Amino acid sequence: SPGLAEDGTHLRVMSFNIWYGGVQVSQTEVIDILKASDADIIGLQEPDGQTAILAAAAGYPYVDLRRHIISRFPLFDPKLGERTETGQTVYPFAGLDSDAPQVWAMVAPGKVVAVGNLHLTSDPYGPDLLRDGATVAEVLQGETDTRLAEIDPYAAAMEPLIKAGTPVIVTGDFNSPSHLDYTKAAIGLRPALIAKVPWPVSQRMLAAGFLDAFRTAHPDPVARPGLTYSPGFPWPVTRDGESLDRIDFV
């Protein structure tokens, strides 16, 4: 309705794994990409201490150094800017308390959205295992033991926000594909796509109430694979045997 349209706020959000601080290829090009994206909010993975430097160079005035988020909108940490819990925690909660996965972005006067940014463990990498002959059951057990164990408490911490009607956005390198991509119709599209696979991390996020932004906009995984991994070398160069997949999400 017109009323809803007036009340709405349009956000352009990007997730960007910059590969060890962006210096593996060119930090200058990383800055150029940040500028060209015209994104309002960007979640960086593997920033390696470069978050504030990149934000300043790309013209982003607001930075959350705990979650590695840069923004055109003011960012407010719900806690005191430091972790107060003690002991070990799962990877996506590194430096964070379990009740503060999000930062608040004030996108309009008196209006905020919750934003999270995460990185899940990289190994063992499921698509490589499938490509090399592992069974789907073996790979799913590995996913359950590693990345599902990491995403479950993170998603659980976000669920109360979602249930309360708060707009919540999460960016991240999940190091795991989506069950929305490994469909029956997509079998054979890539070497790892040997079967329909119910990847548990993406299922857990949907169960929490999230929507996969790319697959919502482009529902056909055959027509639009949306590959994000791995263009780690000047295109179209790839390493022999390099898996290509969609493992970075908004």
Write a structural description.
This protein has 250 residues and is of the alpha+beta class. It has helices at residues 2-7, 27-37, 51-58, 126-131, 136-145, 147-163, 200-208, 213-217; strands at residues 13-17, 41-45, 62-64, 69-71, 75-76, 103-108, 111-119, 168-173, 248-249. A hairpin with a 2-residue loop joins strand 6 and strand 7. The chain is globular and about 50 Å long.
Shape: globular
- Quote the distance from N terminus to C terminus: 26 Å
Write down the overall mean pLDDT.
91
Helix residue percentage: 25-40%
Summarize the helices and strands and which ones pair or pack.
Elements: H1 2-7, E1 13-17, H2 27-37, E2 41-45, H3 51-58, E3 62-64, E4 69-71, E5 75-76, E6 103-108, E7 111-119, H4 126-131, H5 136-145, H6 147-163, E8 168-173, H7 200-208, H8 213-217, E9 248-249
Parallel strand pairs: 1-2, 7-8
Antiparallel strand pairs: 2-4, 3-4, 5-6, 6-7, 8-9
Characteristics of this structure?
250 residues; alpha+beta; 5-stranded mixed sheet; 4-stranded mixed sheet; 8 helices; 29% helix; disordered N terminus
In short:
The protein has helices at 2-7, 27-37, 51-58, 126-131, 136-145, 147-163, 200-208, 213-217, and strands at 13-17, 41-45, 62-64, 69-71, 75-76, 103-108, 111-119, 168-173, 248-249. By secondary structure, it is an alpha+beta fold. Strands 5-6-7-8-9 form a five-stranded mixed β-sheet, with helices on one face. It has a four-stranded mixed β-sheet with strand order 1-2-4-3, with helices on one face.
